[in-house]
From TrEMBL:
Keywords linked to the UniProt accession: Amino-acid transport, Cell inner membrane, Cell membrane, Membrane, Transmembrane, Transmembrane helix, Transport
Main location: membrane
InterPro entries reported in the protein's UniProt record: AA_ABC_Transporter_Permease, AA_ABC_transptr_permease_3TM, MetI-like, MetI-like_sf
Oligomeric form and interacting partners: The HisPMQJ complex is composed of two ATP-binding proteins (HisP), two transmembrane proteins (HisM and HisQ) and a solute-binding protein (HisJ). The HisPMQ-ArgT complex is composed of two ATP-binding proteins (HisP), two transmembrane proteins (HisM and HisQ) and a solute-binding protein (ArgT).
The ABC transmembrane type-1 domain, residue ranges: 23-221
Name the record gives this protein: Histidine/lysine/arginine/ornithine transport system permease protein HisM
One Pfam assignment: BPD_transp_1
Length: 236
């Protein structure tokens, strides 16, 4: 165990000497995909709750497809399936994009987490009491100002407990990135196991790293909920 740690602690944590690996790579995949998925999910969540069917139905189809299929399959389609289409290879920009494993992985992760986040935020928007919206109308808020000043801030607060689950699940889902040759925590553990045959030790270290990350994220979200959801608790 000590020999394994001495040899592989750098790849497990941040680098193999040439590129980002291990914990640092997993965090990069997590933060980048969550950030892009979050930004995309806000307008899509508004469209998901729209009274206009032409806005609502395409978003509903998008979330149905990406929530109804495994992330592993989505990654394989982005990584190898789309590049196999002749029309994509004939376009220089698309060909360069889908030839890069990191681009394909981030695309799959972003679309997947975006689909779940859209449903989380849409549910939070629906849960806002209508009295709050009526009060905002009384103050002259409407249109985009209503969403910017009231609906989105209130929905994001109410969605915190559910979004925290999505973040943890997305952290665990990053472990499939090794199939696209991305050197995340699991990829380093597999390489260490192949080189040393210390299966329990190699994957045990990977498990502890994921456990530590999960614990830190849960603690951060609990603090956020205590700060921003206190208005939903009993009055003192």
């Amino acid at each position: 165990m000590i020999e394994l740690i001495q040899e592989y602690w750098r790849p497990f944590l941040f680098t193999d000497g040439e590129s980002l690996t291990g914990l640092a790579m997993t965090l990069w995949l997590l933060v980048a995909s969550l950030a892009m998925g979050f930004v995309l999910s806000l307008p899509l969540a508004i469209a998901r709750t729209s009274h206009w069917a032409l806005l609502r139905w395409p978003v509903q189809l998008f979330t149905y497809v990406f929530r109804g299929t495994p992330l592993y399959i989505q990654l394989l389609i982005c990584y190898s399936g789309l590049y196999g289409i002749a029309a994509i290879r004939q376009q220089p920009l698309l060909e360069a994009f889908f030839r890069d494993a990191m681009n394909c992985t981030l695309l799959a992760f972003t679309l997947n987490t975006c689909a779940y986040t859209v449903e989380i935020f849409a549910g939070a928007i629906r849960s806002i009491p209508y009295g709050e919206i009526e009060a905002a109308h009384a103050y002259g808020l409407s249109g985009w100002r209503l969403y910017w000043r009231l609906i989105l801030p209130s929905a994001l607060r109410r969605a915190l407990p559910y979004y925290s689950n999505e973040v943890i699940l997305m952290l665990h889902a990053t472990s499939v990135a090794f199939t696209a040759t991305i050197p995340d925590i699991l990829k380093v553990a597999r390489d260490a196991n192949a080189a040393t045959f210390m299966t329990f030790q190699a994957f045990g270290i990977a498990g502890l790293l994921y456990l530590g990350l999960s614990f830190g994220l849960v603690a951060a979200f609990r603090l956020a909920e205590r700060r921003w959801l206190s208005f939903l608790g009993p009055a003192h």
